[in-house]
Amino acid sequence: MSDLNTASNLEKILKAGHIGVTSECGPPRGSDPEEVKRKGLLIKDYVDAVNVTDNQTAMTRMSSLAACVHLKLMGIEPVLQMVTRDRNRVALQSDILGAASFDIPNMLCLSGDHQSFGDCAQGQNVHDLDSMQLVQTVRYMRDKGKFLGGDDIKRPPKIFVGAAANPFADPFEIRVPRLAKKIASGAEFIQTQCIYNLDKFKEWVKRAADRGLTEKAFIMAGMTPMKSVGMAKYMKNRVPGMDVPDELIERMAGVPKDKQAQEGIDICVEHIQELKEVSGVSGFHIMAIEWEEKVPEIVERSGLYPRPEA
Amino acid sequence: MIIVKKKPIEEIIEEVRDFGRILILGCNECVTVCEAGGKKEVEILASALRMYFIARGNEKVIEEKTLERQCDHEYLEEIRKNIDDYDAIVSLACGVGVQFTAEKYLTTPLIPGVNTVCLGANEDRGLWTERCQACGSCILARTGGICPVSRCAKRVMNGPCGGSTNGKCEISKDVDCAWQLIVDRLKALNKLDDYEKLAPVKDWSTDRAGGPRTVTREDVKI
User: Does residue B123 sit in helix, strand or coil?
Assistant: First the structure.
């Protein structure tokens, strides 16, 4: 994993053997670019790249690509998230070229939450490709310099390609085979679902390492600080594929309401410190949902600041 | 078979309100099996409409007929001699039957009495569930005999997605995760290793994406 394929800072950091740090920025439900820029500035110096979500939870928002361009123009490296829910292979390839035209050097390929969760529950979904086929598509465009249709691309996109993994979703026995499949499809880095069950996550990483998968792709552990015991319960009971152990909920419930947010941050920092020592974990993806201002504190207290120069 | 669901009677009333002589036309195939458009349902709908309009002093001529099939010229010919007796036909056949009837009787308004839902099976008494979306290029040999196109809400070819929980789909606890079923079946077949074979980008040109589909068989043409 040493030769660089792109100009991505994230790729350089990870391949240099540093612990990578990414965070995310959800575009606004409106056209004001200042919201994106404000979030970007809050975390700029504390992360190697910033994921920009693509109509997350199927709520219509400013386009991920446009928000990425705003960040890129501010000198912040974006990770363009792209879901296969809303666009067919023509639109996906077209947006990949659009991103590459702004030298956006990272992409995360996802299937996306079902539209029934969002504000367009009566809409169609596309799913012309699935997330692994989107990874294959980006790699094909980059490495072969060709469109899916076979024609040559003038100035192929140079994009470091990632995929998501959920170590906790069912069925558990194919969690590692599924990771293997994503890596075989061409994923170079993996950002995981939010981790609260550390033991189960470590077991997953160990099994992945046993198969040599952690040598083939960089695993970035997903971290989301909880703001309250209510959020913890919601995550446990309502968010698909989430594993929140009862002892964490009890710990959050055990502190007064006005101290719960700080407790959530403390838990997140403790988890990062513990997972930093786990072989096969190459970095952290800190998803502080609508709480970006807390990312600097989390990164600093976890001993991940300052960020290395690539 | 083709699974249909009765339309709300209010919707049918609204459509037939202005017609005086109406034929309720059933079909003896799929819609009979799924208990929404056969002889029995024709009788029930005809009675309900008669009562509704009589109660409002607007008595109509409402007759009943159930054909062997509405997707077949031969059986549709059975109503030709009486077709001028009706101002409109309410067809309880699937969308195919309704259209085939409409094509045959150009000047008679056709009103669908059911919503065509899917290609499915009678899973249990009173429960019909989808099994096929007629994508035109069957991959069941590679997915343990379980179809991700029709049974996965995201038609994921390399699943499951991250939303699979306790064997259920993220859209509802009442919907099985197709990929859980696929994994279970591959395991039962002792072929779980096949799970790791990447499904290539699918050719959807045989699906609805390629436009209306036809099957032509020179060998059986007359």
Answer: strand
